[in-house]
Write a structure and sequence with these properties.
With about 400 residues, the protein is an alpha/beta fold. It is built from 15 helices and 18 strands. α1 (about 10-25) packs across α14. Bound molecules: NADPH dihydro-nicotinamide-adenine-dinucleotide phosphate.
Length: about 400
């Protein structure tokens, strides 16, 4: 039977997913890219045709409309839907997959449009419906969440009997030349960064003031960078799925310039998500800010420098303590040369394609709704190297010699 794959969302990540699926067309079969704005899909399809010779079909769809999605999935005969629209659409797309009997994959957990809060609860609640329909949902299959979950599973499988602590370290050292821009969707990005921090220790979530906890981490191929504690969604599933874990934290780098802009915008109310009245019209400040900021999809051609995202796991192997660092470095310019997207979109889109590939090949397949770390990490790690995201493992030695400066 011919495979049909539907990709939803023609943004920065959707561009990479569509490119990479086309580069693996033997697995993905007929590919359709659908988004709210049809012309964006057509522009991406034209680039893919020119570069790879593969034809990608396109469609317009409002992914907030479950009925419209069901019609599209059935019309195409899609067996798999890759959701790289926004986290606000996760539930409508999952419900459409249940109704139409298609497998589902996303890269970010559900976020309520009116509330700056993201969590897996409502997606996990669909596990029974996915099982009943005999379909699979793979959640959070980008880089972080996504590859970071797989790095943890790989560390658990190959280097530890027990992992005690995990630090997830995300550094984007790219420079796009603008005074201020976000590397992915500004609403999602700024809501995440300006929220309170949270980490998990001995069974409890501990809240911290926004950007109040800082470490300096020496990132291979980049150097020492200020790294701030944030809440990040992969921790929610990892604390459930990694037994005997005592602590997990997430750190992301920000330059002083970025933080100064963000604080000023926050102070004047531009990050607000509640509508305000402006000259008789209601506007949501952060949505208006998104209109003003450079389109993340357009940053690719200007961005120089590297990203380095990884995990540091500390624990016990054969009665001895050890610390393992697994990381991946990507170069913005190299990503752009390959698929016309910068490294943040690239490092999200490539894992989404890999997860989808493993699902279609039934190497990762079980009915229900699942997170990444519940699968064997080895096939995913092999594909990472093959599909453009080679990774490294480093032993950091005695925990007292950790390289936090
Ligand atoms: P963009 O804003 O660039 O793209 C999102 C796309 O979704 C746009 O093309 C947009 O439509 C489309 N879209 C939005 N709403 C709808 C709708 N109602 N119906 C149909 N299409 C819609 O975002 P990114 O590409 O940067 O991010 C995509 C996803 O990836 C997000 O969920 C983000 O959170 C996630 N992400 C995950 C990461 C990870 O490591 N796990 C890292 C970075 C991002 P339009 O056609 O109008 O343009």
């Amino acid at each position: 039977m011919q495979t049909h794959t539907l990709i939803i969302g023609a943004g920065g990540v959707g561009n990479v997913v569509a490119f990479k699926c086309a580069m693996n067309a033997a697995t993905f079969g007929t590919i359709t890219l659908a988004s709210r704005t049809w012309s964006k899909c057509d522009a991406i399809a034209a680039d893919i045709q020119a570069k790879t010779g593969v034809t990608v079909s396109t469609a317009a769809v409002d992914a907030d409309d479950t009925g419209a999605l069901v019609d599209l999935i059935r019309h195409i005969g899609a067996s798999l839907v890759i959701n790289v629209a926004l986290p606000y659409q996760d539930l409508t797309i999952m419900d459409a997959c249940i109704a139409a009997g298609a497998d589902y994959l996303d890269t970010a957990n559900y976020e309520h449009p009116g509330e700056a809060k993201f969590e897996y609860r409502e997606q996990w609640a669909r596990d029974g419906a996915f099982r009943d329909a005999g379909i699979m949902g793979l959640l959070g299959c980008g880089f972080d969440p996504g590859v970071t979950n797989v790095f943890v599973a790989y560390a658990q499988k190959h280097f530890f009997d027990t992992i005690r602590t995990i630090d997830i370290l995300d550094c984007n050292d790219g420079d796009h030349g603008y005074p201020f821009a976000t590397n992915f969707n500004p609403e999602i990005n700024l809501r995440e960064v300006s929220a309170k921090g949270r980490y998990w220790e001995r069974g409890e979530w501990i809240e911290t003031e926004p950007l109040s906890v800082k470490h300096v981490w020496d990132y291979p191929e980049i150097g020492p960078r200020d790294s701030y504690l944030l809440y990040h969604e992969e921790m929610e599933s990892l604390v459930k799925n990694i037994p005997d874990l005592e602590r997990i934290r997430f750190f992301m780098t920000f330059s002083e310039g970025y933080l100064t802009h963000m604080r000023a915008l926050q102070n004047v109310g531009m990050l607000g998500i509640e509508p305000v009245e402006h000259r008789g019209q209601e506007i949501v400040p952060i949505e208006f800010l998104k209109t003003l900021l450079p389109d993340p999809a357009g940053l690719g051609s200007r961005t120089r420098g590297k990203t380095n995202i990884g995990i540091v796991a500390h624990g016990i192997k054969d009665g001895r303590e050890r610390t393992i660092y697994i990381y991946q470095v990507s170069d913005h310019e190299q990503c752009y040369a390959e698929v016309k997207s910068q490294a943040v979109s690239y490092t999200t889109g490539v894992p989404a394609m890999i997860g989808a590939k493993l699902m279609l090949e039934k190497r990762w397949y079980k009915a229900g709704v699942h997170n990444m770390e519940t699968f064997d990490p080895d096939p995913f790690m092999e594909e990472l190297g093959r599909q453009g995201l080679p990774w490294q493992v480093m032993e950091l030695g005695d925990p007292n010699e950790r390289r936090y400066l």
